[in-house]
Amino acid sequence: MSLLTKLTDAQKDAMRAKDKVSLGAIRMALAEIKQREIDGQITLDEAAITSVLVKLVKQRRDSIDQFEKAGRDDLAQTEASEISVLESFLPKPLSEEEILQLIDQAISDCGATNMQDMGKVMGLIKSQAEGKADIGKISGLIKQRLNA
Prior knowledge:
InterPro entries: Asn/Gln_tRNA_amidoTrase-B-like (IPR003789), GatB_Yqey_C_2 (IPR023168), YqeY/Aim41 (IPR019004), YqeY/Aim41_N (IPR042184). The protein has two domains: about 5-85, Orthogonal Bundle (Hypothetical Protein Yqey, Chain: A, domain1), CATH 1.10.1510.10; about 95-145, Arc Repressor Mutant, subunit A, CATH 1.10.10. It has seven helices and no strands. The protein has helices at about 5-15, 20-40, 45-70, 75-85, 95-110, 120-130, 135-145.
């Protein structure tokens, strides 16, 4: 079952259950996906839909930080609920050990020896880790490996 189908089925289930938080998060995700399809005049594949969901989760995390700084814990809690709904559609996150294995594999595949090769390593890893790990964290780990 495709990710888009899962989202639309979950939307129907949330409507039936009158779950406003889930329904709002799913509708927002579907609207963003539809907007990307219209803007690019394309049909998004699974990887593109996953990247949309990752972007939405990241936006929610940024919003939580802002709401907590402003003392709006009620809104921060709503955003956290939306994150949990959106994350249920994302692939299982990679463990620290799996990320390090991916990095080591990519470094050996492209023969990277210094920081100038970081782009090559990131290119290999990004497609495999998209939606499964924080790309910024991966970048930091690659820097550590290449500087060692």
